Structures are given as structure tokens and as C-alpha cells.
Amino acid sequence: MSESYKLDLTRRPRRMRRTASLRALACETEVLPQHLIQPVFVIDGECAPEPIGSMPGVSRLSIPDLIEECRELQALGISGVALFPKLEDRLKSDDGREALNPDTLVLRAIRAIKTAVPELTVITDLALDPYTVHGHDGLWDAGAQDLANDATVEVLAEMAVLAAEAGVDMVAPSDMMDGRVGAIRSALDGNGFEKTAIMAYSAKFASAFYGPFRDAVGSASSAGTHHLDKRTYQLNPANRREALVEVALDEEEGADVLMVKPAGPYLDIIREVREETELPLAAYQVSGEYAQIMAAAERGWLDLERCRDESLLAIRRAGADMILTYFAKAYAEKLHS
Ligand code: PBG
């Protein structure tokens, strides 16, 4: 502790951390509302919002409430919403045929948002999980042991055209079938929708962090199984080279935006994809990443705002241009307060 003890240092990195304004000048990464996309759950009818137990602060909304929410998100500077329908059980079937009903819930929601809040980017998932009784993202093959790749892609391409007709800005295939991005691109182009963009869930891992989402859309409970095994189509969490192969294929097939999902536990993948491609890159901070921060904060174990902000900053620092996050609205509200 003596005053006379002096290191002979030329470089003292702490000099640039001394004051708030020096730290601001040296700051390398920022998270703005414009970088964020709010995932939203939509339900049919004129009912009250339905809170989702495993996602405190998130509710399923009727279309009128969703419109109100979209107005608020737009006013806060959030760039987009990603829509997820929660269907009544009676509309679910083995082949998910409700997905191709031209008046299905999600298509009505797209039309309503694009009419009321046209500047807000609307993204819709392409996958069959909200529509199937088993909760899988596609159609069973003959033996009902695995998903039928090409038959599923045919349905996804039709869903894409319906969503484009409804006015969606981007379709987001989240199914992980082979060849779907190319098939969706040609279906869109063939029907005059060359302006509709594709945000490809390119490196989507078979993650346990999707649990709360499956409560939200009822894709777990309807099958009676809480841990749906999607490992024949989603990526093995152990594999990074395989993720890069998927990303390269989606780029070749015409994706406009690539995505890594989940985000926080896969920051290494985000960084690698960022270095492999020049396309815009999205990362999805999924339901389980949200739930773990919320749960720990509720117990007083973590500071909600600081952990939320740090989690988003880390995803941007890893190289994501845009983030799908259930924190989008709360984050923007804090910036404006
Ligand atoms: C469905 C889909 C899932 C998510 C987005 N789209 C779940 C799944 O693959 O089972 C998860 C999102 C989240 O956990 O927040 N294709």
C-alpha cells in the first residue's frame, strides 16, 4: 500500500474508463429500439389478454389489443413484430391444414396490422407447429416416425404465398427442412411477390430453451409431451460447422436475412456467421432466455434491467444486426423514460 510503489507502465487501459464521457466515447456497441423485433402471440376473438405463466409480462393478445400494442411499439421506435398464433385445439389436426385456410388467424392479424400501422415491419413464422396436434413443425412421413421433408416444404411455400398476399413484409421459415428457402423464394416470385423478404431461421438449434414458447402457442401440451424431440430437423447444440453449412445453404437459396437461434448460449455461432457472410444477421433471444432472467429477478437474485440490457448488448457485440426479443418493448420504454 505504499505511495512509492509505481509500475512502469506505458499502457494503462483504465485511463479511458475514468469518466462517464470517456467511457461513452470509447463505447463500441449499442442497442437501439430500431434493432429490435418484438415477438407477439395472437389469439382469436375479442377476449382479454391471456398472461403466459412461464413468461411473466408476456400475454397472448386478441387482434384489437394487438393493434394497440403495435401502435405503441411503433411509437417507441421498435422496427418490427414477429407474429405467432395460438390456435384453439379444435383447429389443430395431424396435418395442420388450418395453416392453409386463407382466413386463418395469423393472416387476419397481418392484414389488420398492415392496415393500422403500415410502417411497422411484420414478420410471420412459417412452420406447422401452431397447427398440428403433435406440435411438430411439419407433416409426418408414412410411418409417422419422422417429418416428411419435401411434403412439408410444399406446404410452407403455400403458407408463404398466403402471408405475402396478406401483406407481410418478411416470412420466417423456422422449420429447418432442407431446401425450404429456395422453394419459398420461387413460390413467392412465381406469384408476383418478389418484394416479400425471407428471414431464414438458418442455425436453429434443438434447444431446451424453447420450453416457455411451447406453452405460449400450446405446441407442447397438445401433444401431451413436454419435451418435443425435434432433433431430426433442428441442429445439434454440439455442432458449429454444421451450423455454418446451414447458413451457407440459406444464403445460396436466396435468404435476405439469416438467423441464429437461441442467441445467448450461441454467441460463438453469431460471431462466426457474422464473419462468414455479408447479409444482415438476426439473433433470437428465445423464451427460455427471457424466462431465466425474469425468474431470477423475481427472486431478487438478479437485477432485471441490468441483466436484460447486458444480455442484449452481448448479442449485438457478437455480431447480430437485429434481435428478436421479448424484452423489446420494456427496453425501448426505459430508453424513452
Ligand atoms: C416454431 C418456433 C419455435 C420458436 C419459434 N418458432 C419453437 C420450436 O421450434 O419448438 C421458439 C421461440 C422461443 O422459444 O421464444 N417453429
UniProtKB/TrEMBL annotation:
<protein>
    <recommendedName>
        <fullName>Delta-aminolevulinic acid dehydratase</fullName>
        <ecNumber>4.2.1.24</ecNumber>
    </recommendedName>
</protein>
<keyword id="KW-0350">Heme biosynthesis</keyword>
<keyword id="KW-0456">Lyase</keyword>
<dbReference type="GO" id="GO:0004655">
    <property type="term" value="F:porphobilinogen synthase activity"/>
</dbReference>
<comment type="similarity">
    <text>Belongs to the ALAD family.</text>
</comment>
<dbReference type="Pfam" id="PF00490">
    <property type="entry name" value="ALAD"/>
</dbReference>
<comment type="subunit">
    <text>Homooctamer.</text>
</comment>
<comment type="pathway">
    <text>Porphyrin-containing compound metabolism; protoporphyrin-IX biosynthesis; coproporphyrinogen-III from 5-aminolevulinate: step 1/4.</text>
</comment>
<dbReference type="InterPro" id="IPR030656">
    <property type="entry name" value="ALAD_AS"/>
</dbReference>
<keyword id="KW-0627">Porphyrin biosynthesis</keyword>
<dbReference type="InterPro" id="IPR013785">
    <property type="entry name" value="Aldolase_TIM"/>
</dbReference>
<dbReference type="InterPro" id="IPR001731">
    <property type="entry name" value="ALAD"/>
</dbReference>
